[in-house]
Amino acid sequence: MDWTAYLPMLWQGAFVTMTITLASIAVGAVLAFVFGIMRVEGGPILSTIALCYTEVFRGTSLLVQLFWFYYALPLVGLSFDPITTGILVLAAHAGGYGAEIVRGALSSVSTQQLEAARALNFSRLQTLFRVSLPQAIVEMMPAFGNLAIETLKLSSLVSLISIADLTFAAQSIRNITLDSTSIYSITLLCYFAMSLVLMVAIRVVERLVRRGQAFPQMPRS
Amino acid sequence: MMYGYEWDTTTWLTYTTSILPIILIGLTVTLKAAAAGFAIALVLGLAFALLRRSRLIAISWTTAVIVEFLRDTPLLVQLFFLYYVLPEFGIVLPAFLTGALALGLQYAAYTSEVYRGGIEAVARGQWEAATALNLTRMQAYRDIIIPQAIPRIVPAMGNYLVAMIKETPVLSVVTVMEMMGLANMIGERTFEYLVPLTLVGLIFLLLTLICSAGLHRLQKALPKAGIPLR
Amino acid sequence: MTEDNTAPIIEFSNVAKRFGPLTVLDDFNFTVRKGEKVTLIGPSGSGKSTVLRILMTLEPFQDGRLTLSGMSYHEPNGKGPFKASERHLRQIRTHVGMVFQSFNLFPHMTVLRNVVEAPLRVLGIARAEAECRALQLLDMVGLADKKDFYPSQLSGGQQQRVAIARALAMRPRVLLFDEPTSALDPQLVGEVLSVIRGLAHEHDLTMLLVTHEMRFAREVSDRVCFFDKGRICEQGAPDEIFGAPREARTREFLSSVLA
Ligand SMILES: Nc1ncnc2c1ncn2[C@@H]1O[C@H](COP(=O)(O)OP(=O)(O)OP(=O)(O)O)[C@@H](O)[C@H]1O
Ligand SMILES: [Mg+2]
C-alpha cells in the first residue's frame, strides 16, 4: 500500500510534536530561570532545593522520568492526562539543564559590574534584574538554543506513553504498511526540517536579546 | 526470561530486595550498551572530524550534512530506522548491536565536534612549527596535534559517556533488556511500578553522580601541556 | 589644615583591614573634612584602593570605627562580614559615589539609561526629571550628543566621562575616584582630567582621588596623602608634599614616578 495516503496522519503527528516541544520549552524556560536564580541568589535553603531539582532531573534518565510519572505516580493517586504528563516531564528535564545554564551565565557576570551596581545603590533584586540577567541572558542564548533542539528530539519519547506525536504516527503507519524505509526516512526528514525551523527561530530570539549595538561582538560560547 | 521469578510485593523493602538482583543484571546490560556505543562514537566521530577537514569540498560538505542530520534527529527514530530498515537490505543484527550502533551514530555527531574543537584549538602556530620541522601531515597529527588536543577532548568525551548511559533506556523499545526495560516488565507483571522505576531512577542518579565526581578528578589529573602518544 | 574648621565628613579611627592572613590596614586613622579634595598617592599594593572600597562598602573591615557624616559603618548588633544590615549599608551608600578604573558602565544600556537608571529605580525620581538632569550632566561632561549610543561604541575617555556623570546623578556627598585615567590611552587622559578638574570647584562635594597623575594631583587637591604599607606616611598641602617632602620614603617614591 502506498504510504502517501498516510501523509495527513504524519502531519497531525508533526503538529503534536511541535506543540509539545514548544510548550515544554516555554515551561522549561520558566523553571530554568526560577531554579537557576534560586541556585545563585537563594540562600542556603532555596539553593539546596534548586540543587536537588537539577541533580535529580539531570541525573536520571528522561525515559525513566516519563514512565515514573506515567505509570508510577498514578499508583499513589496523582495522575494527569498523557499530554500534560509528557509536557511537564520534558519541561522539568529541560528546566534542570536550563537552570545550570542560567546559573553558569549568572555567575559569569563580572564582579566589576556587580560593584558598579552596588556603588549606584541598587538593591539585590534590582542588581539581578537590571544588571546581571540582561547581560547573562546573552551568554545563555547559544546553550539555550542547543537545549531547545535537544527538547525537540527528546519529545519523540512521549510516543512511548501513548501520545500520538510524529514518532507515534510513524510507528502506526509502519505497522499498517510495513514499508519501513520510506516511512522512517520521511519521519527523520520531518524532524530535521523542524530542527532547522527551530534553529531559525532561536536565531531571531537571539538577535532580539542582543539588541543590535549593545553586544556587537559574538559572545564566548 | 522472567518466568520462574517470584516477587514479594508485600512491602516496598521486600519488593526492592527481591527485584534488586535482576535489576543489577539489567545494569550490566546498560553499561555494556553504553560502552559499545561509546566505542563506536569515539571511532566514528574521529572519522567524521577528519573527513570534515578534508580538502575535497564534496567530502567535507557531505560529512557536514550527515553530522548535522544525525545531530538534529531523535535517537528513538534513528533506532527504529536501523531496527526495521537494515533487515530490509539483508543486514540482520542482534538487537543489542543495533541499539549500540544507534547510540554510537548519534553520539558520533557530538564527538566529531569535540574532536574538531580540540584540533582547532591547538594553535595554528603549532601546525606551522610542524611544517617548518618538515614533518608529514601524519606525523604532525600523531606527534604534535593529537597529544595536545587530548587534555581538551577527554573531559567533554566523559560528559558524553555519562549522557549516553542515561539514554540507554531508549534501547528497551527494541527489546534490549537493560535496567529500565526490566523494571517496566516487572511493573507489568505486578501492577506495581513505583518501586522498580524509583529504584532504577536512583541507580541512574548514583551512577551519574559517581561518574561526574570521577570526571572531575580526571580533569584535574590531566597534564595541561599534553600527553605524548609514544 | 587650619583655615577651614568645618566638621569631618569621613573619619577612620584605628581601622584594621585584613584579607585572610594579609593585613592591609592596621590601626589606620584618617579624617576628611566636608568639601575637601584629597589625593591618595603611593606605591602599588599600599592600600589606596582598599580605603576607597571600604568607604564604598565594597569591602568590609574588621576592627576600629569608620563614620560618614556621623553615621557609623558598623552597627552595634550588626551581623555578617560588614557587621551591618543591608538596609544600613544602603543608607550609607546614598552618600557615596565611585568612579572605577575600568569605567564599569552597563554594556546593555545606552549612555542615557546608564545615567538615568539608578536615580529612577533607587531614588524613585520621575522619569522626565531624571532624564532632564541626566542630560544636563551629560552636557557637562560633553557627551549629550552620544546619549543614545551604547558603551561599546564609545572611546575609553568617553566611557569614563559617562561613568562620572552616572555617579554624579545619584547626588553623592562624597565621590571616590580609583585611578580614573589608568586604563586610558595617553591621548584620552586629558578629557577625563578636565571633567574632574571642573568638579574640584564644587564646594559641597568631597572628593577622594587615587591617581598616578602627579601634576594633576598637585593642581586640584587641597591635601595629598602619601600611602606606604597601609599607613599614611606623610600628608600635607600639595606644595609641601611635592615641593619639600620630609620623609625619605616620599622622596624616593616621588623621584621614581616623576623620573
Ligand atoms: N580581594 C583581595 N584578596 C586578597 N588580597 C587583596 C584583595 N584586594 C587587595 N588585596 C591586597 O591588599 C593590598 C592592598 O591592595 P590595594 O588594591 O588597596 O592597593 P593599591 O594601593 O590600590 O595598589 P595599586 O596602585 O596597585 O592599585 C595588596 O597587597 C593586595 O594584594
Ligand atoms: Mg588600586
TrEMBL record, chain A:
It is a multi-pass membrane protein. It comes from Shinella oryzae. The chain crosses the membrane at residues 12-38, 183-205. Its main location: membrane. It is found in: Cell inner membrane; Cell membrane. This is Ectoine/hydroxyectoine ABC transporter permease subunit EhuC. The keyword Transmembrane applies. The gene is ehuC. Keywords: Amino-acid transport, Cell membrane, Membrane, Plasmid, Transmembrane, Transmembrane helix, Transport. Belongs to the binding-protein-dependent transport system permease family. HisMQ subfamily. Pfam families: BPD_transp_1. InterPro entries: AA_ABC_transptr_permease_3TM, ArtM/GltK/GlnP/TcyL/YhdX-like, Ectoine_EhuC, MetI-like, MetI-like_sf. It comes from the Bacteria.
From TrEMBL, chain B:
Pfam families: BPD_transp_1. The chain crosses the membrane at residues 20-51, 91-110, 193-215. Keywords: Amino-acid transport, Cell membrane, Membrane, Plasmid, Transmembrane, Transmembrane helix, Transport. It is found in: Cell inner membrane; Cell membrane. Coiled coil: none annotated. Signal peptide: none annotated. InterPro entries: AA_ABC_transptr_permease_3TM, ArtM/GltK/GlnP/TcyL/YhdX-like, Ectoine_EhuD, MetI-like, MetI-like_sf. GO terms for cellular component: ATP-binding cassette (ABC) transporter complex. One of its GO terms (molecular function) is transmembrane transporter activity. GO terms for biological process: amino acid transport. Its main location: membrane. It is a multi-pass membrane protein. Belongs to the binding-protein-dependent transport system permease family. HisMQ subfamily. NCBIfam families: ectoine_ehuD, HEQRo_perm_3TM. This is Ectoine/hydroxyectoine ABC transporter permease subunit EhuD.
UniProtKB/TrEMBL annotation, chain C:
InterPro entries: AAA+_ATPase, ABC_ATPase_HisP-typ, ABC_transporter-like_ATP-bd, ABC_transporter-like_CS, Ectoine_EhuA, MetN_ABC_transporter-like, P-loop_NTPase. Pfam families: ABC_tran (PF00005). The keyword DNA-binding does not apply. Coiled coil: none annotated. NCBIfam families: ectoine_ehuA. One of its GO terms (molecular function) is ABC-type amino acid transporter activity. This is Ectoine/hydroxyectoine ABC transporter ATP-binding protein EhuA. It is a peripheral membrane protein. It comes from the Bacteria. Belongs to the ABC transporter superfamily. GO terms for cellular component: plasma membrane. It comes from Shinella sumterensis. Its main location: membrane. It is found in: Cell membrane. Keywords: Amino-acid transport, ATP-binding, Cell membrane, Membrane, Nucleotide-binding, Plasmid, Transport.
